[in-house]
Amino acid sequence: AMSRLGKQVIDVMDVSASYDGVQVIDGVTWHIGAGDRYGILGENGAGKTTLLRLIMGKQRASKGYVKIGKTVKFAYLSQELEGLRGLEDDRVREVLGRYKTRYEIEGKELTPAQLLERLGFENSHLNSRVRDLSGGQRRRLMLMLILLDRPNVLVLDEPGNDLDTQMLAAMENLLDTWPGTLLLVTHDRYLMERVTDDQFALIDGKLRHCPGGVDEYLRLLDERDAAAAASTPGRRAGGSSDILASAPQPERPTTMSAAEARDLRKQLYSLERRMSTLQRKVEAIIAKMHEMDPMDYMGLGALQVEQRELEAQIRALEDEWLDISERLE
Prior knowledge:
Blueprint: E1 10-19, E2 22-32, E3 37-41, H1 48-55, E4 63-68, E5 74-77, H2 92-97, E6 103-105, E7 108-110, H3 112-118, H4 135-148, E8 153-157, H5 165-176, E9 181-185, H6 189-195, E10 198-203, E11 206-210, H7 213-231, H8 258-291, H9 297-327
Parallel strand pairs: 3-9, 3-10, 5-8, 8-9
Antiparallel strand pairs: 1-2, 1-4, 6-7, 10-11
Helix pairs in contact: 7-8, 8-9
């Protein structure tokens, strides 16, 4: 279902580059081969999007070069979804009608409409205009159009934004069966660990392989923060990783040891996973209520009580999460 990929895919050779006048990539060498599934970790502003743009030949390096294999066919799901720009006034079914291709997943051939159904669209959405779709629907439509273009290198920059839990699960299933090369930038640790085989971290312009995954990345950040604190007494150390929250983490004073900070980050992860599980339960209850007979007051009442209890639990976990986040400042 995709264009055949030659042996040589992408070679990044001693590349440096800047974003907004600041050097964010510093002498990076990286070989990406056929079928590699790589995740890129890094704080906000670390240069992850710049690295993706360099890899795709959308930005020139200030030093070094990027060699892209002749057979490479990129697909890019960006945070801005610029691929939908010319389609705003079209109906979803018109957009689909332009694609004659079928997409193969797990050995089954799907039409574009079946693929959209896999991505949580209903028949009623086919008549909607693209501009009237929700953020999550737009992102799913864009992902589908990308897959129908039959690329062999899929580049995803924060694909989880605007997606609800159910949708994220459908997208993960789609990516699990993706046979080509995959490059993923995400703050969602679960998505990162589920769909990529190897993680790399962009720290201070250098690319570091993290065989130990996200935990190793967090340890590298702690070491960097500790070194920075030691070299400049009186200065506050740079704050923790943003993989656990999209909000930038405030800086924290150097009084806390790296081990304590790491322990608090682990607690944050665990709280996030619990919140997301409870949120999924709430979504399931709401879906169930929609399907019920509106006259079934007893049944609906019981579900509402359950929903309120779950939401109270989520609020309590959120409070705990905020307390720990503040301690990390």
